[in-house]
Amino acid sequence: MTEQVETMDQAVKAMGEREGKYLTFTLANEEYGIGILKIKEIIGMMPVTPVPQTPEFVKGVINLRGKVIPVVDLRLRFGMESIDYTERTCIIVVEIGTQAGTVQIGIVVDSVSEVLNIKGEDIEDTPT
After folding, report:
1. What is the side-by-side order of every strand in the sheet holding 58-64?
2. Which terminus of the chain is more solvent-facing, meaning fewer CB atoms within 10 Å of its CB: N or C?
3. Are strands 90-98 and 101-109 parallel, antiparallel or unpaired?
């Protein structure tokens, strides 16, 4: 019984940690969200320089004010059908932590929706 209580406590704590403001975006008519604090900026689609011998979902790199940023197409990364980019397609530049520090990555999404304040219990776990 004590083990179950500890597991529930951990689950509740994890939900609280996930609670907050999220930028929502769409991919193939599905809505996703990313924590607002991870976002550096949102830019319109721009030319991406391909990088040889990278996975298909790595579109290449962009030069954003002198900084080279790798760009990943989330549709392809998630195994979705590739589509032509539209005027609503954009790149969300996010900053993620690694063992070596932080790195900025651009992620291509179909469109950006809005910023929402989401409760921890309303967030679904990431599929494996």
Report:
1. 39-44, 90-98, 101-109, 67-73, 58-64
2. C
3. antiparallel
What pTM did the predictor assign? 0.79
Q: Which residues contact 64 (CB under 8 A, 6 or more apart)?
A: 43, 93, 106
CATH of 2-119, one of 2.60.120.10, 2.40.50.180, 3.90.190.20, 3.40.50.300: 2.40.50.180
E-strand ranges in the chain read: 20-27, 30-35, 39-44, 58-64, 67-73, 90-98, 101-109, 111-118
What's the pLDDT at 10? 45
d(CA 104, CA 67): 9
